[in-house]
Design a protein that fits this description.
alpha/beta, 2-enoyl-CoA Hydratase, Chain A, domain 1, six-stranded parallel beta sheet, two-stranded antiparallel sheet, 8 strands, about 20% strand, globular
Length: about 220
């Protein structure tokens, strides 16, 4: 490989890091693939340029490469997201959950809305004491053409999210729905905010801990 090719490769890596905080190139040195899911999860529609986003079409190829790379022994997911596109977020969660390698997630700052199933998609999940998770029904800000039809669509979408969380965490259906439709915590909305240990107490997250705790757990799963 000549010098110009090396420089171009390095420039591409720098652009990847600038755009989404993680290199989109296979990591042959470190057996752990680190993923950061931050800001708003961008799906089929582009988010405004002034928003920090995670594009699902960037994360999926990284997960595919990690699954196929025999030198990648584990995946570490760091979450600080406000939520975003439901279809894209659920697609990422399903993709992550079905990868046949040890996976650990860490909620830093926030794991809100569709960030909840992304946090539970791993084999083991952590949350720092100050992080928050908001559980609420899905909502729309777009045009509603047929009210009954739209309601049934959202009801089915909501059920998909509920079913995913139930099979990837220890929370029960009754508790999850009570948290989701609570009306006494959010002033202008329905739902519940869980802080740190509360998410563990409800069975949503496995353990309260920080980066080193999550990394130790991933190493133990890899071993």
């Amino acid at each position: 490989m000549d010098k110009d090719t090396d420089n171009k490769k390095n420039d591409d890596i720098i652009e990847d890091i600038k755009e989404m905080g993680v290199s989109n190139t296979p990591n042959f040195e470190n057996p752990i693939q680190f993923l950061t899911i931050i800001g708003e999860i961008e799906g089929h529609s582009l988010s405004p340029s002034d928003k920090k986003t995670t594009k699902y079409e960037h994360i999926i190829p990284i997960l595919i490469a990690a699954e196929q790379n025999p030198k990648t022994k584990g995946i570490f997911v760091i979450l600080n997201t406000v939520g975003g596109d439901v279809e894209a977020g659920l697609a990422l969660a399903e993709m992550l959950n079905t990868i046949d390698k040890p996976k650990v997630s860490l909620v830093l700052g926030g794991g809100h809305s569709i960030g909840v199933p992304l946090a539970t998609a791993s084999d083991y999940s952590f949350i720092v004491p100050t992080a928050t998770m908001t559980i609420h029904p899905i909502r729309t800000t777009g045009l509603v053409i047929g009210v009954p039809q739209t309601y049934r669509y959202f009801e089915k979408m909501q059920q998909r999210i509920i079913d995913f969380i139930l099979r990837t965490s220890d929370i029960d259906r009754k508790t999850l729905k009570e948290l989701m439709y609570s009306t006494d915590e959010l002033a202008n909305d329905v739902g519940t905010i869980l802080i740190g240990k509360e998410a563990v107490d409800y069975g949503l997250i496995d353990e309260v801990g920080g980066f080193s705790d999550a990394l130790k757990k991933l190493h133990s799963l890899m071993d």
